[in-house]
What we know:
mainly beta
Amino acid sequence: MFNVKTDLYRPLTNHEIGQMVLQGCQCDNWNDIHVHTDFQPEYVQQTRFSGQIRLGRFTENISLFGGITFHTGIYNATIHNCIIGDDVFIHNV
C-alpha cells in the first residue's frame, strides 16, 4: 500500500460514526476506518466502506467547470481498501 504517515490518522469516534450513519454511510467494521486528525464527518454522506480505509481532511471548496462550487468530501460512493487524501471531491462513484 502507499507510504502514509500513520501519526496523522486516528480511529473514528463513536460520535463521528453515529453522524456518518445518520448521513447514510455504511461499514461492516468501523474499526477499519482511520481518519485525519482534522477529519469532519459532515462531508462524508451516503457512502459504503469496506476494507482498510484512510480518509484525509475535507476543508476546502472547489469550483468545477461552469462555476459550480462543491465542498470537498465523499458523496454517494462505494470505497474499498483506499487511502483518500486531503480535500478531494468524490461524487456518485
